[in-house]
Design a protein that fits this description.
With 350 residues, this protein is α+β, with helices and mostly antiparallel strands. It has eleven helices and ten strands. A hairpin with a 3-residue loop joins strand 1 (90-99) and strand 2 (103-112). Helix 2 (18-34) packs across helix 3 (39-45).
């Protein structure tokens, strides 16, 4: 009952028609209970709502509903998540993920302990990258999210080297008042205060960290940055990091939680890669349902005590939450639904 009420409270804040909100709520609950985003599995979990075939068609209509405008909904969803987290600093992560050869998605998420909650995203065919290019695509997503964050809270954006080796993106993000923490290619040139130039990779020493202030991105005319080259003894290559402010050595490590979240949405969680939803606009609506479901599951997992020993001691927050919900509610959403009101009985006194 509490889960049903929380889901209702969240979904009712979205600017959707009442009927569409009900479908979204059922879609997310069915996904959580079934542990899959495949429409057949979700429809079966929604059996208490009616015939499985009818539920399947409800889900299909939601994904095809052009009145479900993702730009507006992503901003509203981001505002809810940011408000719920009440963080003193917001760490955003951006990366691209692929669904086999069918689709790719650029996802901007907010870091939460052990995971990354999607806030804004864009899906596109694997062989047809958006015409505006990577920088403008990411900035569009970022500008949807930034207005939802209180102005007194610092915002930091993390990106891996496939995205972060971009002086244009670094300048655009900093122009919005955000800090950057980008991993860049080791071949990136660095110029120190004395004018000496070296590749960042050449500054790494295995088992040590090196910090300095200087300029990077020679071809872009040199951009000022704080530079960190940290090389864990167990890794083959160092992390070459550029940032707006000085950072501790471990600050970049949380970026891998976005990789974990992609795995949770796909093979280790909701089977996103097997959804068979390959139209880009349909996939964006499905990702809204995935984001809602993921946030519920990971939020619960973070509140459950971690076992000190045994197989489950190594489970992530997502897996702890998913296992708890599966134990309580599988195979249908029947235990989640509010009890019907008692029948009204009138008494006629003669």
């Amino acid at each position: 009952m509490l889960l049903y009420q929380v889901m209702s409270e969240w979904v009712n804040q979205l600017s959707l028609e009442c009927r569409v909100r009900r479908v979204l709520k059922d879609f997310a609950l069915g996904m959580i209970v079934s542990g899959s985003c495949q429409l057949e599995a979700v429809a079966s979990a929604l059996a208490p709502r009616g015939r499985v075939e009818s539920q399947y068609r409800r889900l299909q209509r939601f994904l095809a509903n052009e009145r479900v405008k993702m730009a507006v909904l992503q901003a509203e969803w981001a505002a809810m998540v940011v408000k719920t987290m009440q963080a003193e600093q917001v760490v955003l992560l951006v990366d691209e993920t692929a669904l086999s050869d069918h689709l790719k998605a650029m996802v901007l998420g907010i870091w939460s302990v052990g995971g990354c909650v999607p806030l804004a995203w864009r899906c596109y065919p694997a062989q047809a990258y958006p015409v505006e290019g990577q920088v403008q695509l990411i900035m569009t997503l970022l500008k949807r999210v930034l207005p939802t964050i209180p102005v007194n809270i610092p915002v930091r954006l993390l990106a891996d080297r496939g995205i972060g080796t971009s002086p244009a993106l670094m300048q655009a993000v900093e122009a919005e008042g955000c800090q950057v923490l980008f991993r860049v290619q080791g071949s990136t040139r660095f110029r120190n205060a004395h004018g000496q130039q070296q590749s960042l990779h050449s500054l790494g020493i295995r088992g040590q960290s090196w910090h300095s202030v200087g300029d990077v991105f020679k071809k872009a005319g040199w951009l000022p940055a704080h530079v960190t080259v940290t090389w864990d003894a167990h890794y083959d290559h160092p992390w070459c990091l550029v940032s707006s402010v000085p950072i501790p050595d471990h600050a970049y490590a949380i970026r891998f939680d976005q990789e974990v979240s992609f795995r949770d949405l796909k093979s280790d969680g909701f089977d996103w890669q097997r959804s068979h939803v390959w139209l880009a606009d349909h996939a964006e609506r499905l990702l809204l349902v995935l984001a809602v479901s993921y946030w519920v599951v990971i939020a619960l997992g973070q509140r459950l005590p971690r076992p000190r020993s045994g197989r489950t001691a190594h489970w992530s927050a997502f897996h702890r939450g998913k296992a708890a919900l599966h134990t309580l509610f599988h195979p249908t959403i029947a235990p989640l639904l509010p009890h019907p009101p008692p029948p009204f009985i009138s008494c006629v006194v003669q």
